[in-house]
Amino acid sequence: MKKYLLKTTFILGLILSTIICSFGQSRLQDKSKYIDVDGARLFVRLVGSGEPLIIIHGGPGMSHDYLAPQLIDLLAKDYQLIFYDQRASGRSSGVEDTTRLTISQFVNDLDILRQQLEINRLNLLGHSFGGLLAMYYAVSYPDNVNKLLLIDTAPASWELNFPYFRKTISERQTELDRQELSNLNSKIDFETNPEIMDRYLKIYFKPFFKNSSLSQHLSLGIDKNWSSNFNVTNDMVWNSLGRYDIHEQLKNINSPTLIMHGDFSVLSIDGAKEIERMIRNSTLVILKDVGHFPYIEDPKRFNKTVRDFLKKQ
């Protein structure tokens, strides 16, 4: 009789704990809205609760979608993740006025977003180009940044960025993938067909991963607006940067800074090391056997490193 009661109690407890877990996950706050910023409307998504952490996506011209699934799963239970699509990217407007597709405008947009969200000092997590934008922001508004997280960031100069990037992509791409990319690019509806663009980018991103098959785990969120805006935004913003170099300006950043970089990244480790050298209160963490997307390739270490950094006083 006692054994039966114990077994029944155990089963009931297991069922109850499962229901509570499911109920807790279903209550995860997930709200979206648009915020007007100087001639454009930015799409903003707030997920989870706790200390705010603004997520800055790469590209330029991509959207927050490729970061959202994994970061929500890893961090949203303890932090309020604030995703946004940059001007003329994803669901945000602004592509009509190409004169505003500049790095200085993107910095200004981010500060208006900060004000609209009523956050005095930001925790910024920038990935790829998003890391470069985060650095430009922190240089312009050092007192508005609490903590800075640069996840496989673009280097702080053209010289440390593009020569290595282009060489590495060229060396890692297979001839078969090159041919497939060329075939997709030649299609008449290449820029307006989300399925073709999604296929193209998942092939293009294969060299960005140590295990190239993981490129299929990217949730790019591509629709017709995304496809048609991407090339315009990407070209205009990089053109606005020119042969940039902000290494000396990085000395103005006072906030604690985490630099996380994969040892198999398509962006140079030398670039990450130079950022660490210039930002006085910074720490570089190099992840072994990881490429450009550490939150997909090594989620456990990514999660622990980010959480330890954010908790540290």
TrEMBL record:
GO terms for molecular function: peptidase activity. GO terms for biological process: proteolysis. Residues 52-299 form the AB hydrolase-1 domain. Keywords: Hydrolase. One of its GO terms (cellular component) is membrane. It holds the Pfam family Abhydrolase_1. Belongs to the peptidase S33 family. PANTHER family: AB HYDROLASE SUPERFAMILY PROTEIN YCLE (PTHR43798:SF31), MONOACYLGLYCEROL LIPASE (PTHR43798). This is Proline iminopeptidase. It comes from Cecembia rubra.
